[in-house]
Amino acid sequence: MTESSRQLIHALTDLRAAQADIKARTDPAFHRRLMELRAWQSAHVAAFHAERAVACNGSDLLDFLTRRFYLEGDWSELTAQPVRIAAAVGRLVNNDRALVIAVDLQAVADSLDIDMAAALLADPRLPADWPLGAVSYVRATRRVTPIAGARLPGWMN
Description:
With 157 residues, the chain is mainly α. The chain has helices at residues 3-24, 28-55, 59-69, 76-80, 82-92, 97-122, 134-149. It is globular.
């Protein structure tokens, strides 16, 4: 097994664990906040980069990254059997670095979103029925940032 295959297995395993953590949570308020958080982040990232995307002919890429990849991506087929997937990818692709990075990014995003949703729920200044806003988002980010740094893959440090 190559180092690249090991990295892909590790990334897929991390992603599977983050997604299992999300599915294991039974609090409907958590899932509502998580969905709201992801939609809010996606919209804000898309809006922030919209002008540059148009100028660089990258609107389709921005839509892919902020909506289809982040919000709608279904990784279940890849995460179900990481060893088998890594072996298959190794036979088909000479350089799977981009895939490893994409899976790592999604795993980190899912883990960070879990922590952010939990921080938003714990914020006494954000009642459950109030929508997420910039101030509550910043407060949650400040609480989560030290935690998230410990989980970053080596290439992100």
